[in-house]
Amino acid sequence: MNAPLSTPAAASAPQYVLVRADELRLLLPQSDVGVAEYLDGALEPLDGAGLLLNPADAEASKFYAALSSHMKPLPEAPEGRFLTTTLGDAGDPLHWCWNEVRVVPGSAITPLTLPPALRAPYSPITEFALFEDHVVFLCDAARVTEFAFAHRT
């Protein structure tokens, strides 16, 4: 008799999406992340403080942002950020630029509370985990967006 492909416990574990912006690795609830799209072409700065436009989008129906390793919007999209997703509301015209986007089963993650000495005021990060020999930070899309744009450069 073959073993089942998933156990009830594994099936009920939350699913995450790993999004990577260079060295920054975030684990977001899968329900917070929209469909990943391939970005073909360079983006241009809109306002110099983190909003970007795709010059090929004649209607300017989408805006883009790229996070730094400190979770602040960059004035330009770095090379290698060729995947985009929305965060939170599916109808949001803001697309975030990533190096990597992939689903991670919750059973592969053991969240740990960030020690108080390492917490920054107003940071969306309160938990972390070790995944594939890298530290990943758990948070939700709303807090990432709020933090990023509360600290625009």
Automatic annotation (TrEMBL):
UniProt-recorded name of the protein: Uncharacterized protein
